[in-house]
Amino acid sequence: MTTSLAERFRDRLPLTDSTPVVSLGEGSTPLLEAPRLSERLGVELWLKWEGSNPTGSFKDRGMTVAVAKAVEEGATAVVCASTGNTAASAATYAARAGLTAVILMPAGAVARGKIAQAQAVGARLFEVQGPFEGALDAARELGRRGSHALVNSLNPYRLEGQKTAAFEIVEQLGAVPDMLALPYGGGGNTRAYALGFEQSGDSLPRLLAGEASERAFTMATAIRIAEPAHREQAEEAIGRSGGAIVPLADEEILAAWRDLARLEGVFCEPSSAAGLAALARERPEPGARVVCVITGHGLKDPETAARLTTPPAAVPPDPDVIAEATS
Q1: What is d(CA 315, CA 28) in angstroms, rounded to the nearest whole number?
Q2: How many CB atoms sit inside 10 A of residue 178's CB?
């Protein structure tokens, strides 16, 4: 039997005796050693593999808490604006809780795999004209009207759930790492990690946040957010940690994405490689212990993977021909 994230960290989460458990076995994700990338970068590198969460991204950590609190507070529906991962997670946890999920997506800006997840569990999906910010404004207004519980990261319960990844890293390493590298989209996850490390009673690692230099147009759709909702608080935490924000070209993100897959066997969606791309640019001290957060599974965006890799070669069922083709 799997222990839910809420049960495991109940004493450090804003839960009451009346808060139901709405779980699919989220959290307790592996911390993977990355020997080849460690050698290349001259550090001790670990990968916090959040793609192993139930819907394939880190969003499940916050959603289990946000949806549980929505149920506790009497909600019958949830709403979110999303570039994809929040949509899949909100829809899935709403289905688990018996709630209706309304998903607002910027038109043409969400990877097909994420839309399919939300569709499969019965969410009501709407494509909103214009950028992400317009969809978020509409979701916030629905939340203010009381008809729907807003489950974007503006909901404080989301960050409370997401901070548990920091607790796990401290448990897994036995200490706070020297540096934490992660993608920077809306900034909520950066805030959550800072909160978690500080609540663990230890020092804050240097936070290295990789963002797309062309935020509104990047092919890394999960971080295609022109105006981060948590900019002020996230950047304050980064500054306080002695860290940095690293603007990245799409080519740098894709190079890191390929390295994760080909050197370490970790298949993530492109945006999830932004932390590693930032590390490649802003090298930490030699020998530093570094954790790179890999936020989402590669199956979230299979179209991009197919477009950027070599297609299968056609061969007859002849072992000699196949052996020659592989030499």
Answers
A1: 43
A2: 17
240/65 Cα distance (integer angstroms): 27
Sheet-wide strand order for 149-150:
124-128, 100-106, 77-81, 149-150
Q: How far apart are CA 224 and CA 234, in angstroms?
A: 17
Q: Is the pLDDT of residue 88 over 80?
A: yes
- Segment 233-252 shows an average pLDDT of 97
266 vs 146, higher pLDDT: 266
- From 292, 287, 289, 290, select the one nearest 266 (Cα to Cα): 292
> Residue 203: its pLDDT value, please?
84
Q: In this structure, is the dihedral angle defined by the CA atoms of residues 66, 68, 73 and 77, taken in order, positive or negative?
A: positive
The verdict on 224 and 104 lying in the same domain is no
The H or E element containing residue 208 is strand 206-212
Decide if 325 is inside a domain. no
Examine the domain organization and report whether 43 and 67 are in the same domain: no
pLDDT digits 0-9 by tens, 2-18: 789 999 999 999 999 99
**Which among 236, 223, 316, 318 has a CA at the least distance from the CA of 278?**
223
Same domain, 129 and 186: no
